[in-house]
Every structure is written in structure tokens, then in C-alpha cells.
Specification:
Blueprint: E1 10-21, H1 26-37, E2 41-47, H2 54-58, E3 62-66, H3 79-101, E4 106-113, H4 119-130, E5 133-138, H5 142-150, H6 155-168, E6 170-171, E7 173-176, H7 179-188, E8 192-193, H8 201-209, E9 213-215, H9 229-239, H10 246-249, E10 264-265, E11 300-301, E12 307-312, H11 321-337, E13 351-356, H12 362-374, E14 387-392, H13 398-405, E15 408-411, H14 423-430, E16 435-438, E17 453-456, H15 459-470, H16 477-491, H17 505-526
Parallel strand pairs: 1-2, 1-4, 2-3, 4-5, 5-7, 6-8, 7-9, 12-13, 12-15, 13-14, 15-16, 16-17
Antiparallel strand pairs: 10-11
Length: 527
């Protein structure tokens, strides 16, 4: 009996595997978008949940293959039993998807790490069975995240580290989110090129010519941009129901939709100055804006708007939201001290702190925030007079617009490995939004302190930065200087060293990934 021949690889095809909610995995969605744009048949594999970015639902050559959620009965079982059963269920479902649901073996399998268990082992097995080339995208180290919960000396952490070390070392190529991640793994883990399956002279030449260990810094897609006043006006009209609580309506400037929002307005036609009473400069009432019939003005930003500060958090212990809360308390005290100042350049504005994201600690912190905002429970009589905080969950289309409409971003990300960078800052930079970022080892690969943001290490430093950047808002010179750096980076000549480097995801991906993916094809064509 003859053995069944191995199906031929489908060239220019890729399976992108993320063991998580696809809609909450931006880097992997951007990978899939770039593969499809470069004419790869792309299979994006992961779990249902948040809505994927719109392009994944409209681009040709993209198939989204959803994995089955683990059975709900597992939640009732002890972890020592439920954990292995969940992993076994995931293994079987991933194998079924990669071996059966994809008709022809894809040329590449791109897998996100972490999570490491069981994905690294599964794709290693599939690569041997189907002849696919594995690319590991190192976002972080899985065992280091587990160590935050259990401690570095825990048995499970040691097992997870050995698992990640063994199956993570061998792949066709390795992508890294930072230079620090590449340097550590290359030196400490001795990352290798998988040669056991590539015995042809073409593969050998390819191996000798390239190391296949490349840094692919995160960059946002082109839809992340600075929002125009018109885009901001439309967004805030859409978000008005989220600002309708009593603690916010008594805090935000009065508005009259669709002509005004707490942040934007459509200027009405002006009454000639000669018709005004003596001493009256303008008839504009920001609380009752309604353009006259001949008005054709475009929306503008309000001068009396609060400063809009945005952060995205997972509401987990590894992102210390309490630090931000302490900084806001200190800012409130500083703003009160400035109430009597006559010089507008020295005053501190009101802050609306918008927090996006979901997570286990959200309710705990939002209850404390509500107490600070309401005090004795009577609307408008809260302990905080100059600060409000609201938690929002945004659709994929709204999130870039919110960042593009904000004045300042905050990152509380603290890397478990010290070698990854927060995607939230990347998104903010794509929208021309400066950040105050919690410092850690390799943050300077992204945040240039004093150029595109400021780095803090505790609540006191963050509070001081908020005061220095927002003083005199909306004409805050320190904030304007950081905002100007994005324009300088965008227009800097190629190879210039006076500016920090920046670009879109597509530009970065094509520069790094295209040579890696098309290298084998070029050699084979030459031979």
C-alpha cells in the first residue's frame, strides 16, 4: 500500500493564529490585513468577541475561522482539572482548523506569543505534518506574565518557561516587537532556524543568507490620524449618551446638539458689532448655539472645553490604575489652588478622563471614582470640582476618532518581561497624541522623553506632568511643543537623525516583512 502523498503547499497563503479574541488583537488583525493586501490568501484564526476592524470584513482573500469556546462546564471544575481539559480542547480545535478546515497547507503559519501553551507546540506539529513555515511573533514572554500571578519560583511558571523555551526556539522566522526582546531571546534562548524539514539546496542557501530574526515595531494603520473638528463633532454627538450621568452633565459645558457638544460647536452667523449694546463684544452663548439659516460654518473646538485625557487599560493588577487615581487627586488639589489666579496662562483646566477597556478591577475602581465625584451623593456637590472620570467601551471605528480628538494620552503599561512595548501608545502616536507613560526598560524605543511624550515612575511625577502640560489650556505651550513633534516626524527627510522615526503600519510591514516572505520565491525563481 502506497502512503498518501502530502498535499502541495499553497504558495502565497498564510494562517494567522491568535489564541484570543480576534477583535482585541490589533497587531494580528493588522498582520492579516497586510498579508491580504499583498495578495496572500489569509486565514485568520481565533475566538469570537469584539468586532474585528472593518477591513477584515471587506477585503478579498481573508477568511476568518473562529475557534470554539471551551465548554462552560469547565468553569465549575477546580483549576487543576479544568486547566488541562481546556488545553486539550484547544489543541483538538486548533488541529482541526489547521489540518481540515484549511483545504491546502498554507505556506506560512504566523502565531502570536503569548499565549505559548498550547499554540507553540501545536503549530510545530502542524508544520511537520503539512510542511508549513512557522513564524513566531514575540509580543512578550508567556511565562513572565504567569509569574506575575504565581511568582517566578512556582512549579507551573518553571514548566511554562521550559515549554516556551523548547517550542519557541525553532521556527522559520522570529518577529520581535522591540530590539530588547530580540537581543534577549537570541542571546539567552539561542533561537534557531528550523532546518529539519528544509533539506533542499534552496532552503540551505536561504538559511545561510538570512538570520530570520527581525524587529517589527508596532505601528497603527492609516485610519489612526488626528481627527478634524468635523470628525470630533460627529463623534461627540454619537457619545453624548455616555456623558449623560448627573455627575457629568453638571461638570461639562452646556451643549445643544446637533449644533454643539461639550467639546465642539458650529459657530452661528455673527450679529454685526454695531448692533450690540456698548461693551458687548459677541452675542455667542455657548450653551444655546443654533446656526441661522444662512450659516455654512464648519465645526470648531470650544474654547471652554475641558482637557480630554485618554487611557486604555486592561483593569488588571499589572496596570496600576491606582497610580492614575492618586495623580488625579493631586491634580484636583492643584487646580483648586489655581482658582483665584487671574492670569489664564497659569490656570489649570478641568479634566475629563476617559478610560477605555474591560477587565476584572473595573467595578472596584469605578466605585471609588464615583465616591470622589459625588461626595455626599448630591449631584453637583462632589469632592472633585475639576476632574471627572468615565469608563467607555468603544467600537473599533470610534476608538481611533477618540484618540484623534483627545489632548493627552496616558499609559500605565508595565512590561512583565521589560522587553515589550504597549500597543496603546502606538495607537496614540498614530493619532498625533502625546503621552505620559509609565517608564520601564525598553520604553525609549518608542517614547522619547520630552519629544513625543513624558515618562513617569510614580503618581507624584504623573500629577506634575499633567499640571505642566495642561497649564494655560487650551493654549498650553508645553503640550503644543509635544504635539508639534508629530508634524516634524511626519515631514522629516529620509535618514534624518534630528527627528524621531515614525511611519504607518503598512510602510513598516512592507519594509520588514516582504523581503522575509518573498525571499524563498526569489531564490527558487533564480534557480
Amino acid at each position: 500500500m502506497y502512503a498518501k502523498p502530502r498535499p502541495k503547499l499553497a504558495l502565497r497563503s498564510v494562517a494567522v493564529l491568535v489564541l484570543g479574541d480576534i477583535g482585541r488583537s490589533p497587531r494580528m488583525m493588522y498582520h492579516a490585513e497586510s498579508f491580504a493586501t499583498n495578495k496572500f490568501q489569509t486565514y485568520l484564526i481565533g475566538y469570537r468577541g469584539s468586532k474585528p476592524i472593518p477591513s477584515l470584513l471587506s477585503l478579498p482573500r481573508i477568511d476568518i475561522l473562529y475557534l470554539r469556546e471551551p465548554s462552560s462546564y469547565l468553569r465549575a471544575l477546580p483549576f487543576i482539572v479544568a486547566g488541562p481539559l481546556k488545553v486539550l480542547s484547544q489543541v483538538m480545535d486548533i488541529l482541526h482548523t489547521l489540518l481540515d478546515r484549511i483545504p491546502n497547507p498554507p505556506e506560512f503559519i504566523l502565531v502570536q506569543n503569548p499565549p505559548s501553551i498550547p499554540t507553540l507546540a501545536v503549530v510545530w506539529l502542524v508544520s511537520h505534518l503539512r510542511g508549513c513555515k512557522v513564524i513566531i511573533d514575540w509580543h512578550n514572554l508567556g511565562y513572565s506574565i504567569l509569574a506575575l500571578k504565581l511568582g517566578e519560583q512556582h512549579t507551573f511558571v518553571k514548566i511554562a518557561k521550559r515549554f516556551e523555551y523548547y517550542f519557541g526556539r525553532k521556527a522559520y522566522a522570529h518577529l520581535f516587537v522591540t530590539k530588547a526582546m530580540r537581543e534577549y531571546l537570541v542571546s539567552e534562548w539561542n533561537l534557531q532556524y528550523e532546518t529539519s524539514r528544509y533539506r533542499s539546496i534552496v532552503r540551505l542557501i536561504n538559511y545561510l543568507l538570512r538570520g530570520h530574526k527581525v524587529v517589527l515595531h508596532d505601528r497603527p494603520p492609516a485610519r489612526f490620524h488626528r481627527a478634524s473638528p468635523s470628525e470630533a463633532h460627529e463623534l461627540f454627538q454619537h457619545l453624548l449618551p455616555s456623558f449623560s450621568s448627573s455627575t457629568l452633565t453638571c461638570f461639562l459645558p452646556a451643549s445643544k446638539p446637533p449644533y454643539s457638544t461639550p467639546f465642539t460647536y458650529i459657530p452661528p452667523s455673527r450679529i454685526p458689532i454695531s448692533t450690540l449694546a456698548p461693551g458687548v463684544d459677541s452675542p455667542l452663548d455657548m450653551g444655546d448655539l443654533s446656526p441661522f439659516s444662512d450659516n455654512t460654518a464648519m465645526p470648531e473646538l470650544r474654547g471652554d472645553r475641558p482637557a480630554l485625557v485618554v487611557t486604555s487599560t486592561s483593569w488588571t493588577p499589572d496596570e496600576d490604575f491606582g497610580m492614575l487615581l492618586d495623580a488625579l487627586k493631586q491634580y484636583e488639589r492643584a487646580a483648586r489652588q489655581c482658582e483665584s489666579l487671574e492670569d489664564e496662562k497659569q490656570t489649570l483646566p478641568n479634566i475629563l478622563m476617559v478610560v477605555t477597556g474591560k477587565g476584572p478591577l473595573r467595578q472596584r475602581y469605578m466605585r471609588e471614582i464615583e465616591r470622589l465625584q459625588t461626595g455626599d451623593g448630591e449631584a453637583g456637590q462632589g469632592v472633585w470640582r475639576h476632574v471627572r472620570c468615565v469608563s467607555l467601551w468603544l467600537e473599533p471605528d470610534d476608538y481611533p476618532l477618540l484618540l484623534g480628538s483627545a489632548d493627552l494620552g496616558i499609559s500605565l503599561h508595565s512590561s512583565s518581561s521589560g522587553r515589550d512595548l504597549p500597543m496603546k501608545i502606538v495607537d496614540m502616536f498614530g493619532c498625533g497624541l502625546p503621552v505620559c507613560a509609565l517608564g520601564f526598560a525598553c520604553l525609549d524605543e518608542l517614547v522619547k522623553d520630552g519629544v513625543n511624550g513624558l515618562v513617569f515612575h510614580n503618581a507624584e511625577q504623573l500629577a506634575t506632568q499633567l499640571e505642566s502640560l495642561l497649564r494655560g489650556f487650551p493654549s498650553a505651550p508645553a503640550l503644543a511643543a509635544l504635539q508639534a513633534s508629530f508634524q516634524q516626524a511626519a515631514h522629516a527627510p529620509a535618514g534624518a537623525h534630528d527627528y524621531w522615526e515614525w511611519g504607518t503600519w503598512a510602510e513598516n510591514w512592507n519594509r520588514v516583512m516582504r523581503p522575509l516572505l518573498l525571499h524563498d520565491v526569489a531564490i527558487e525563481a533564480a534557480l
